[in-house]
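pinging the channel bc i need a second pair of eyes. not urgent but kinda urgent?? the chain im working w is below, pasted from the shared doc
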Amino acid sequence: MFDIGWSEIAIIALIALIVIGPKDLPKVLKTIGYWVGKARSLTREFQKGVEDVIKEAELDEVRDQINSSVKDFDIKDQIEKSIDPDAELTDAFDVTMDENMSETAGEEKAEEKQVKKEASGAKKAVKAKEPPAKPLADAERMPTISSPEDDGGKDKA
């Protein structure tokens, strides 16, 4: 990381031994180790924060891409393309009218309405002429079946 070799470390240790002294050297090394550990944890935390920001930015981009693709997605168009990719069915059922056809279609619709009115008027007239149906008596509702054994109470002997 800092590109320090063993020879540089030996020189630093020798200078520390002379300046600090052998008595306080373990305390100083312990303190230096503590602060190096703190610095490493801070750098790890900072790096993790930066990675989280990058992930969030990427997720925002992905979310924006998904939202834009959903807005552009037309389900009706997709279904039509999957069912009728060559648009043969659409062309077969497409009713395009020119001026002559629109006049003819208008006349045909008027004739259909007139026929429907006449048919409903005829039905009303037929209903008005028919007398209301009277309810059947109980004897008329149930047919009677005579058995060969039952001959009206008369013996043939």
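so The chain has a mean pLDDT of 75. and The CA atoms of residues 2 and 40 lie 14 Å apart. — does that match what u expected or am i reading it wrong
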